[in-house]
Write a structure and sequence with these properties.
With 389 residues, the chain is of the alpha/beta class. It has 14 helices and eight strands. The protein has two domains: 173 residues, Rossmann fold (3-Layer(aba) Sandwich), CATH 3.40.50; 195 residues, Up-down Bundle (Dehydroquinate synthase-like, alpha domain). 50% of the residues lie in helices and 10% in strands.
């Protein structure tokens, strides 16, 4: 038996999707809108969101300032705002960081007796939600898929370690995919978030828990990234490409939230937490090296070879590298971090963190800590792992 949950109550997509906000219901008719910085304000879509909420007779307030790779400190501040405002809808408008932070705030709003990040980290379970509020996510980037996933990542404010937290109740009730809202995303960020989608899809395809339904979603997502990401990178206002990527992000999210990910994410979480490398950029650089490592597994190698043929390539790792070149993404981490000695000294710590990451459990091959050290060193300096035919 393979139970699968694809999304919450409604997935709304296509132009003018934001109009769905007029259908929101609530006993208090209050919504807290969670956003990041100034970039969302430049899209011109916040006034539309406000107008639709007013049409639904909602009062609303904002929580602003969610940073990339959100910290627990930000989550605590957001929870305090929720407790003061008492909304029955939390509306996250932003990229993966904003949606992840809003999910975490939601838990602490519903359970104010929780005080620490450890209270919601494994082995603790996420308790039932929706006693006070429901959640609506409006992604402004095509990357995380958080609008349909049961997980989020929060960085410990003191240790800077990223913690992945999961629970089926965390799948948002409504996901609204408005393609125009992503049109103003800058090229470099479009590239990084798009490669995050590709990583989600390809890791889901070779996950040890993969199955036919998730495969269909993941493959479609990955194919569309190869086709449409270079277009969106070159032509930010190309709404067809933007919509295809937004849907690809959603499809990949549906896939990986059910079958999980692999060691690209394990390593990216460790490197991102320690060195502040943006998550999508880290994934993009790490992905081809992990494809080469995983190709030591016969089944994974066959899946990679089959998919590579569908994008007109013989070698998937090389195809990813060519895509990265089109997006001006470096071939290795060294040009991003520029701290050879410090990074080398940190490799044992990074390897330990990656080996303990929850995503490692479903990788087709489970590296030893020593193998993690080798892979991470090669990702930094640009040396290939193994061989692929």
């Amino acid at each position: 038996m393979l139970p699968m949950k694809l999304a919450g109550e409604y997935l709304v997509f296509g132009e003018n999707s934001l109009e769905y906000l007029t259908q929101l219901q609530g006993s208090q008719k209050r919504a807290l809108i969670v956003i990041g910085g100034e970039s969302i304000k430049k899209t011109g879509y916040l006034p539309k969101i406000e107008a639709y909420l007013k049409e639904a007779n909602f009062s609303f307030d904002y929580f602003t300032g969610v940073e990339p790779d959100p910290s627990f400190y930000t989550v605590q501040k957001g929870a305090q705002k929720l407790l003061a405002f008492q909304p029955d809808w939390i509306i996250a408008v932003g990229g993966g960081s904003v949606m992840d932070a809003a999910k975490a705030m939601w838990i602490f709003y519903e359970y104010p007796e929780y005080k620490t990040l450890a209270d919601i980290c494994p082995p603790n379970q996420i308790p039932p939600l929706r006693k006070k509020a429901k959640m609506c996510c409006i992604p402004t980037t095509s990357g995380s898929g958080s609008e349909v996933t049961r997980s989020f990542v929060i960085t410990d404010t003191e240790t800077h370690i990223k913690h992945g937290i999961r629970g089926m109740d965390l799948i948002p009730d409504i996901a609204i995919l408005e393609p125009g809202i992503t049109a103003s995303v800058p090229p470099a960020f479009t590239a990084a978030t798009g490669m995050d989608v590709l990583t989600h899809a390809l890791e889901a395809l070779v996950s040890s828990r993969a199955h036919i339904v998730a495969d269909a979603l993941a493959e479609k997502a990955a194919l569309d990234v190869f086709e449409y990401l270079p277009q969106a990178y070159r032509e930010g206002s190309n709404l067809e490409a933007r919509e295809k990527l937004l849907l690809a992000s959603c499809f990949a999210g549906m896939a990986f939230t059910n079958v999980s990910l692999g060691i690209v994410h394990s390593i990216a979480h460790a490197v991102g937490g320690k060195f502040g490398v943006p998550h999508g950029l880290a994934n993009a650089i790490i992905l081809p090296f992990v494809i080469e490592f995983n190709s030591q597994d016969i089944k994974a190698k066959s899946i990679y070879k089959s998919f590579a043929a569908k994008v007109g390539a013989e070698n998937l790792a090389d195809a990813v590298r060519v895509l990265n070149e089109k997006l001006d993404i470096p071939r290795n981490l060294k040009p991003v971090i520029h701290q050879d000695d410090y990074f080398t000294a940190a490799i044992p710590e990074l390897a330990e963190l990656a080996s303990k990451d929850g995503c490692t459990k479903t990788n087709p091959l489970i590296p030893t800590v020593e193998e993690f050290k080798e892979i991470i060193e090669q990702i930094y300096f640009g040396v290939k792992v193994g061989s692929q035919s």
